[in-house]
Amino acid sequence: MSRQPRSAQTRRALIRSAAQTFDEHGYPRAKLSAISAGAGVSTGALHFHFDTKAAVAAAVEEEAARTLHESARTVRHLTPDPLQALVDTTHVLARQLATDVVTRAGYRLNCQSAHRSGPDLRARWHVCVCELLDRAEEQNLLVPGLAAEESAAALVGATTGFEVLAREDAAWLTPSAVTGLWRSFLPILAGPGAPQTPEPSGPRTAPRGRPRAASALVR
Amino acid sequence: MSRQPRSAQTRRALIRSAAQTFDEHGYPRAKLSAISAGAGVSTGALHFHFDTKAAVAAAVEEEAARTLHESARTVRHLTPDPLQALVDTTHVLARQLATDVVTRAGYRLNCQSAHRSGPDLRARWHVCVCELLDRAEEQNLLVPGLAAEESAAALVGATTGFEVLAREDAAWLTPSAVTGLWRSFLPILAGPGAPQTPEPSGPRTAPRGRPRAASALVR
């Protein structure tokens, strides 16, 4: 069925196994032998794809970055209102962090600058938030006089914090927690010029419990 | 001059040296020999105080917890308005994270649950935020109908995120960044019942640039 070459399949399996290993044991204790065994291949096959543990970690982070990018693009495509798109993107990302081990491990590795050689996920998220707030401002959807940069920073801080806090207590990334965050934030952002008040509980069309929710949204 | 016994002085020097070593190299790469050398003592002296690297890390976290507790108590003592006390506490903590290596390393270690054996600093901070919001609610200082628990979670998320983001870019913990956070948050919280609007830029009486600002406040 699949046209994906075997080599690409193996690489994806290694990335997933690495994410599971990093997620369970942390980067310093993760062993390359456990990563290759988890992917059902030899350590030789692992070394064909990745020179070092740092290279595997960078690949996990790149995959998490790709998921972030795809999610944001898909939500924007489906949701013309930029404030609603911002709300919906946070919900989709929270669900991916909660359910997809590659996204979760990618963000966590990305937090440990000693190991990071790939993309800066939080900086990319900050850019995404600023772009959506800029579009909202152009459409006169924001509270008049709002300091959009400060609001963007507060929101990036809060979402980053929720991700970090969820490592100890998964309740920080449940739909109700993210909805609560938006019930707090939307009154700061949404002005009287909006045709309708954004819905803090996120996307209505997304099927629940699927790891790649953003991809599912466009099917 | 000091009446502190030599043993307690050595222990404090070891905690500070450990914090510097963890801050610079991360926990996994930190060597006990570097920690004892940084404190100007032998590794034997280190082992007199701490059995393992995890025990040194726990002591750094305990010291950071003590600083958090003292700061919060001092600010409350000086600031009767609970919302202003909340604002001022975040400013004092941000300055401590930016300037005091023991506080910074303590929070960072505390984020890595694999190594944590001491206090949960973020849970303690959450309790502190909830207590101050409860007091504000009792005094009718909050926006009517505010979901204080959700606001507390949003604020704990944002402050946690600022701390994590500052590891890559110190600008997240500057006074102006924390002031911007409060310019975003205060309109959510502060209701018309307040005798005066809280000041987002934090405490007026704190001398700048001192590592232990909370202690300085009471002098």
UniProtKB/TrEMBL annotation, chains A, B:
Sequence ranges of Low complexity compositional bias: 202-219
Keywords: DNA-binding, Transcription, Transcription regulation
DNA-binding region range list: 31-50
The organism's place on the tree of life at top rank: Bacteria
Residue ranges, annotated region (Disordered): 192-219
Keyword Transcription regulation part of the UniProt annotation: yes
Domain HTH tetR-type, chain residue ranges per copy: 8-68
Keyword Ion transport attached: no
PANTHER family (UniProt xref): HTH-TYPE TRANSCRIPTIONAL REGULATOR BETI (PTHR30055:SF234), HTH-TYPE TRANSCRIPTIONAL REGULATOR RUTR (PTHR30055)
Record-given protein name: ScbR family autoregulator-binding transcription factor
Organism: Streptomyces catenulae
